[in-house]
Specification:
heterotrimer, A alpha+beta, B alpha/beta, C mainly alpha, A: alpha+beta, Arc Repressor Mutant, subunit A, nine-stranded mixed β-sheet, about 40% helix, elongated, C: mainly alpha, two-stranded antiparallel ribbon, 3 helices, 2 strands, flat
Amino acid sequence: MEFEPVIGLEIHVELKTKSKMFSSAPVAYGKEPNTLCAPLDMAFPGTLPTVNKEGVIYAIRVCNALHMSIDNVLHFDRKNYFYSDLPKGFQITQDRRPIGSEGYLEIEIDGQTKRIGIERLHIEEDTCKQLHFPAFTLLNYNRAGTPLIEIVSKPEMRSGEEAMKYVEKIRSIVVFSGVSDGKMEEGSLRVDTNVSIRPKGSKEFGTKVEVKNINSINYVQKAIDFEVARQAKLIEEGKPVLQETRRYDDKKNETVAMRLKTDSVDYKYYPETNITPIKLSDEFIQNAIDSCPELAESKKNRYIKEHGLNNYDASLLVSEKAVSDYYDEATKYSKAYKLLANWINVDVASYLNKNVISINDFPLSPEQLAGLVKMVEASEVNSNQAREIFAKMLEEKVDASKAKEMLGITSQISDTSFIKDAVNAVLEENPQAIIDYKEGKARALGFLVGQIMKKTQGKINPKLTSDMLLEELKKR
Amino acid sequence: MYEGKSILELHELLVSKKVTPLELAKDAIELAKKDTNNAFEYIMESEAIEIASKLTEPEANNLLWGIPFVIKDNMSTKDVPTTASSNILNGYVPVYDAAVVEKLKNAKAVPIGKTTLDELAMGGTGTSGHLGMTYNPYDESKTRLVGGSSCGSAAVTAAGIVPFALGSDTGDSTRKPASFAGLVGFKPTWSRISRYGLFPFAPSLDTIGIFSRNVTDAAIVTEVLAGRDDRDSTSSTEPVGKYFEEITKPCNKKNIAIVKEIRDAVKDKEVLDAFNKTVEELKKHGYKINEVSMPNDVLASLFPTYFVLSCAEATSNNANMDGIKFGPLSNGSTFEEVMSEARTKGFGELIKRRFVIGSFALMKENKHDLFIRAQKNRRRIVDCVNAILKDNDFIYLPAAPSIAPKATDSSDRLSDEYLIADNHLVLGNFAGLPSITLPIGFKERMPFGANLMARAFEETSLFQVSYELEQITGLANIYAKGGRK
Amino acid sequence: MKEYNIEVLKDAAKRLLFDMSESEYETLLKEFDIVTKQMDIIGSDKSIDEYEPMSFPFECTTSYLREDIPEEPLSREDALRNSKRKIGGQIKLPKVVQ
């Protein structure tokens, strides 16, 4: 029996607004516990929610990136339940009228483009942070009220890999749109998945199992693949798949039962009566959309079409927003796109990896890097020299020209008469090499170029030199 | 000494320096300490003295300068204990002031105490607060209710201790006790006054309420409190009228509707006679009185609709009461046990029953037949009221079927016996309309009142017509001790 | 609508995290009968379903959205002032088992 996995993803994204979604307390990380709370976040009696404009704008940006219909009236509802990390005893969310509905995103899978439908995107708020000890739990209300958007996909993914690519795409969108850090390890992007399997071709749905505690992009694929296999095995053995919640144990690479979903919880949703419906004008929505920074997809296409970069280089640049931003900034100072891309994807990347820092902490500004690239483009230095200069720039934190000066590198010689003299001088000194070359010995050319370099202390433009050499050899 | 005086009278004394705010505050505090009506949760002696001592230069243009007042204990007062008359909030000391408290403090009025209420404002008898029953100052035998849920504020004002008090109104909680206590009880248009800091019962129905002994004082206070507050997203941006300045001007809205089914449901002859007399007088003042009808099934549906909606909202609004962030310490080996002990011990039985009903009404299987049906019926009711107010400017009715009942004759338990005369004030909450009760007569030495309701945001004309009615009855500035007519 | 009896009411109370005395459940049962009967009467007129449910007293759509400007939060002392369970700047609960 061939099975087909049916996978849906619910992704919560923490928005990096300056204040909380329904209160004016600051949003910040790593601060002392319980120092970022407004009276509303502590659920003190009589406090009231007010809706954060930036949170709405951010949500609209993502809805638009996901091709969703955007509701022009904001309605909020209460999701009522009791839990230790829920101060009010309810969460303010959007049940009946999510801000975004019926969208999609596209992933590349097996060389094809596949469209995954997205059911809804709604705005809600985060809960307290709990610190668990063996005998007790501590509550920190700093996080309570932080804006979240929840993105619910349609159950249209058919493998762990597809799910992983979906998550990558969502992450790219929320990061490039400037709305979130999108870091699974830090909790600013949280993935829960619903996994079931059914006989291939069937339209019925199998028993759905929820899997939580997936803390990195790689684990998305691993957790789902494990779960699919687990369910398939159960069915083959004639055992039932229980409707339950499981957590992914990344050390053992398996899903473990957490709790049985006997009856689904009744959240007694009803409209939030402390927030009257909010009309979003067409202008507001359009401004929110227009305010969105360029997304990865668009940048990549632009790099390919307008800068002539290849797919690989362009993809590398957009794999991280900060990198593509760096590149974009550098292109303000130099139009040597391919060179810039190369320097960033290879030399800068290597430095970052070695020093375990992100490009945000890279000591050279885009302008400085562009300065170096401009030298290379103008053939003022050759590639070895450029690398020396690069290292010097990093070491001394100086501009390319200063570093070049400090290294005593004089501009690469491109004066054709000088080169011609040098070439001819070397040819005079090495008649055997000429004979070897004429006899087709491959090394001869390299030997001659090496001699010319030695004579000119490497300051000669290599391309012009070899062109000149070939020309002179033809004459002899 | 200053018992029973109105805002304007006190203002006159203050501005002419015949009395200081400190003297007034001390006077009111003495009276408060002698209060035998069980009306206070907390007397703000040191706080009031501190505030009043700082008021040394009278502000002639500020009518509330130095005026003492009390606050229903379901409003947040910074550094002053606030319990909402519930054990679950014993020891709770807020870190912020409600918007209305802030506004009155900014106006240099002097708060002298927090008053009792039915627990968490969920009641109508003034008996369910954790300190027990609040008595009606007009009844020396202490057997009659003052009503609820704003029982303490009503009792304090009716005893003449302060010229005005803050209350709240969700179903009739200011306007009904006002009737039982011979007071002006004013409920503004929903969203007119910020609810920031008002402990929520049912936000889609809740408003702040104002008690006073004459209509002008209510208008003065309302004008200071009304207006947009960005901390309450539901608060209205409608401009605030000059209620005080306009109040003596003749009302140019002249059509008054009387819902005959409601009026006819009042069986108390004295109340009806007094009411009808006022109607005749209003006619003489140029008002056109129109008898209108509301379908009986709509009227019969008022109470259950209110009950389902308010209980459902209340359940959610009190889910934060868990003994964790505030409230008395509770024990347990799991967080559920900790919360359960707090809630089991902290909530009174009446409101627990309300919560269960409210929660039941929101459950998936019941929502359609209970909560949503109540929401639909609300629209049906509101359509009816608005239809009446299309051709009429006001609705005028007896506020209650009779004088304050005896405690033994009344109960907070639901009964099948349904009295529309007892439950019609909630029309003002369903439709969010401004509504005012004022005294129109006495029976067995107990006062009773009538109620006027206007269209949304038409406070100015509502005050004008009630001012005229007050002139007709001559019952301004009555109070229970010595000042009674 | 769900069938109810004392057990159902007890379960509903339990989900609300409190308990009541036996006699209170009896009283509550009677109140339930009254409320459901009265709501049934409203529902018996099928025209009720033609009305849109009402969440607010009147049409009150606004356009106000709060600017994203953080304000001074409560001091930790004020945030935790009223909690009887505070320890080391946080609130302590029995171990929460997930």
